[in-house]
Queue: 4 jobs
Job 1
Amino acid sequence: MKQKSIKKALILVSILAIPGFLFFYLLPHFAKNRYKSLPIFGEKVVAKTFHSVKGKKIPDTIYHQVPDFKLTNQNTDTVSWKSLQDKITVLNLFYTANATKEAGKNLKQLEEYYHKNKLLRFVSISVDPAENINTLKAYAKSLNAEAGKWDVLAGDTSTIYPLIRKGLLLDVIHNGETDNSKFIFSNQILLLDNQHRIRGYYEATNPDALAKLDDEIKVLVAEDLRNIKDGR
């Protein structure tokens, strides 16, 4: 009788222990890579090279990348992809003569939240070729944008417009018919990964879009940290 009681107790303990085992040991293995990877925007080309997955040859894909550039920031320093090497980049367009205050405020809040994150950089590019160092400095100061963490950039149209249209896949229109030059462009924030690929577009004044941007920044940061840990 005593042996039966002990046997029943052991069976009960085993049954109760199984959920704990599944949760603490099996679940992390199953959940390790279970997150939805962000899309990659732009043209995709199937390469002639391959990689192997479980012994099966899979064609490599060449994704659209934002090309290199050289623009000047609020400290008159030249900024290019070399300056942003291995960084996740949050990027937007503006011009100081008609900067959207709400968009600037939203970016400022986001940058302040991620200011200490070394994997992340913010970049704002003026669409106005008449922008000068004084207006850039004033705009950067209004946002408390620290060069090297949040670069406010300007350059000539021969550099900026091809970058916007062919690189960022956006458009910009210069309306010079009035006395005050105006520029029409999409009020979007872009999220670029550390390979300079576009991973998301977000309306700069839409709270839902900004919440999504925040979530997707975290996805890219987690992806980068995992790659660093794995030595990729």
Job 2
Amino acid sequence: MTAAPTPVPSSATAADQLGGGAGASRTAPNTPHAAPTAKRRGLRPKGGAWLATLPLLVFFAIAFGLPAVAIAIGAFTLSPDAPSGAGSFTTSNLTASVQGAYWTALLGSIKLSALTALIGTIVGLPLAQAVVTSRFRLFREAVLSASGVLANFGGVPLAFAFVATLGNAGELTKTFKLTDHGWTLYGFNGLSIVYLYFLVPLMLLTITPALEGLRVQWREAASNNGATSWQYWRHVALPILLPSLLGGYVMLFGSAFAAYATAAAMVGASVPLIPLHIADALSGNVLVGQGNVALALSLDMIVVAALVMAVYLPLQRRSAKWLA
């Protein structure tokens, strides 16, 4: 007499027997009734997140939105001290902001920012790599902490520090007799060195997370395939880091472009820069009826800053895909 075949348990029943009911819990989300519930639950954090960002949006609208609107309105209206038609619509302010000394100052700011940002990017990358690969944790933390301080160090204290060190009567200038070789701190080259004092630490802070995101497996795979260290950086690391490097360069450019207090305290009018001309216009050092030219110059800076952010944000998203 043949024994009856033993019934084969279903996958859910077998999972229940092995996992104490775990199979039922796994299949539950796939039921028709569970999916809408999960979908509804997934929508709740989004609404809460928007509500949580409301104070930040209000602050942004008050601190940045209202001044930007006021600048835009003033840039297209005549100054209150204009001989005639005060407050009326005009494009003469914008026309004047891209002519003569103002145009020279705008080009000077772009040149200074582009050069210092490039040098800061080139110098900051190997320094950041040295910090990331350092085996001394205290050294790494000390460098990153100091970079955070130096990246925000500027204004009159920074100008005074360099004047006391590399000015015409500075300690290093007298010790090495730099003036005999044509050195001067109060020019384009001197100001570039001062800007690098806070741009290089800023680049180090910007690129360090990207360097930490490089996988060890990528370097090992390149080494196993016979690639040298230079080939690894040329064909693997640098292409991956390129969006982060460009994003860091754009950030350094924006920081240098908007800097004012250091240049005003150190070089004054000897180096034509757009923030210095804005300060002169706001203080009344312009022709009668052209007070709103300062607002037009400010609008030019806002446009440049907007272009900088328009380039930076896509680069940041692109680098996050590789280094997430």
Job 3
Amino acid sequence: MQILVISQYFWPENFRINDLVEEWMRRGHQVTVLTGMPNYPGGKLFDEYKENPRSFARYEGAEVLRVPILPRSSGSVRLILNYLSFVLSAAICGTWLLRKKNADVIFVFEPSPVTVGLPAVWFGKIKKAPVVFWALDLWPETLAAVGVVRSPRVLGWIGHMVRFIYNRCTLVLGQSRSFLDSIARYCDDKTKIRYFPSWAEEVFSLDKISPAPEVPERSSGFTVVFAGNIGDAQDMPALLDAVEQLKDNADIRWVIVGDGRKFSWLQSELVKRGLEKIVLLPGRFPLERMPSFYAHADAMLVTLKRDPVFSMTIPGKVQSYLMAGIPLLGMLDGEGAAIINDAKAGLTCKAGDSAGLARAVLELASMPPSERRKLGLNGIQYAQEQFGRAQSMDRLEGLLIESINICNAKS
């Protein structure tokens, strides 16, 4: 297949689309990626890209076409301009860059914003190719949940845009079962909706992995590791409240690996609360470095704010945490918490329940090592059964073929 990927984010930014493109190339498909210039999550253009942009023109054999984009920087206005700049740049510059390229199918990667679907729909029309849209975030619900947009009228306009996009896609994939009803509200043809969750990344096997030198090694104690985006959705205030409740327990250490829009706030808040010695912030690292940070962990932490839209979300890190074989701590509601509990892979508390998280940390830390190992093994088994990489890739390949067949049947 000739697969055209439309994604605002791509390598060297850390997203699952990188793994997906690599797998498609391994399976013999021809892949072209239309994306922006790397600036997520810090909001500044990556130094390594600025120094040598040509070195980022291919990824595992796939051609990577990049269009100009206004970096995210900080603030809601700048973020909106970042989103709009990709839409316009992809539609205008992308049309020229892709003028001689055919596509059997167009795949849209949408962790947010949903606006990435607009240029994809345009290319679907001019290339006469089916569009498969993978919704990893729900708009307009998420915008309301994080407070980026509060106006009901504006949210209504965004809802009309979402309907416009979904109705012009051949298939719309939801990352959790809870997403499907929300997608259906904006999709006139319900038969095009499919459930497709993220897979467990095999890169997180910890066999023969040396612990990250950026984190001091400890012969005893209990280390909680959070890895990923540090933003509004991850509810850093509630997390710090839990840390503060346990600050007198010298055995417990927290490592927060990543970057994002709340990173500067987190840095200053740690100093303000006097927590900088028990919470380590190593920064952002490429995906392949993550196992070395996991190797320090006695527990892996996932958090989401309390909001109906987030209760429908399965954070992608949950599958990776499960596959790592390390007990999970979850401060979140809904489907994400249900997976941890169903897998018997860790402990959870309600979203925003800092006291509950503190209790869960103490409970997990007090468990015998053999009991924690059992939780980790449960996680691996569940991840392999429910989110195995091979079967996920096979299924997605089947969905792409299905979309092509649907398109051919209509023509």
Job 4
Amino acid sequence: MSLLVVGLSHRSAPVSVLDRAALAPQVRSKLLQDVMGAEPAAEAAVLSTCNRIELYADVDKFHAGVAELSTLLARHSGVGLEELTPHLYVHYEDRAVHHLFSVACGLDSMVVGEGQILGQIKDALAVAQDQHTAGRLLNDLFQQALRAGKRAHSETGIDKAGQSLVTFGLEQLAGDEPVAEWVRGKRALVIGAGSMSALAATTLARAGVAELVIANRTLDRAERLASGLDMGAAHALPIHRVPAELPSADIVVSCTGAAGLVLTADAVRDAVLHRDSGPGHGSAAASPLALLDLAMPRDVDAAVHRVERVRLVDIESLAEAAADAPLAADVDAVRAIVSEEVGAFGAAQRAATITPTVVALRTMAADVVATEVARLEGRLHGLDDKQRAEITQTVRRVVDKLLHAPTVRVKELAGEPGGAGYADALRELFDLDPQAVAAVSSPAPVTPEVPAPAGSPDRTADSTAGGRL
């Protein structure tokens, strides 16, 4: 295994840099193709969320891989390499596995324990599969990361500590008042119809908003989302009608994939003026306009923070609030799960490196049996078919019994740290043809349902791999 991760997140970079570096869906696909076109990489996947942008790759060489992935991230993000580099982190081999599993379990999220990251990891794998950039290593890695995340949420109480960014953001807007009481009687506007917007709409509906409007560029998606909510006062409208709808809203949640701003400071200022002067606009007279911006890059102009009678909570605000949030006692239990899953993944990958050699050995043994049985038949005349079959089966059983114990034991040993050398020893002892082993190592493409082993690790990296770039 030679897994490399290069990325930046809310822990390593200010929100302003994350905002500018955010990758649109079409950019992610082009990035994956460019990574595959680079010499050091054999597989690639991009994990891009409002908290992080990470590039995973199976590389031949550590230093060349870091340089190439960093350059490609800078090129596709539009942030210069010199500016981006101080915020990048690098993880390699086991540390890279540990990082992704920690991310999947919510330990590296802005809001510790949040479960939305599992869907984002699943989406990242799906995109890599669609682009044919995920092979054996990344299929195995991402699927086990999803299993680790599910274990964390089912076996511990991390859900008590973790909450979605939507819930956390609404709590910040509500202040000391419970969200259910704060939203009561209010009119909410959700801009966007993706997974985060759907979560926002569902959360607001369950909390008890009086009316909910979904605005989206594709009206059909907004209508489907509105019709699926468990409330009668929910309807959809095209996104170009947002400015006209804004004065009637008390709560606005925006999370789109737009490249530019969805709500400018002028648009929000005009909406506030209409709310203050126009009758019948929800609870406008009692409370300021509450805006929750969960998009990356941001949907709402940061200048809105300076607009009177407006309360804006965005990713940057959430990052500051989350830094002071207490960790649950179950975090230690989740960390133990991560360590256990990392160990299991490493053992499985190391053990898998021996499989092609074992298969090649058994193939060679079968060829030897066939040759010797054919030679024996030439010397023993008058044997009927039953006798020939019995002799052949006996010879095969003898060879199988001789090979069984050593091949089982060598697989066990290969799964231990430092066990990769057992494959080399087996090839040397039995004088196996390297081309025969290589042929076994290159089977048909692997589907997500049938994960397969990755190749052997590259040991060229220095001992400092896994820290900040």
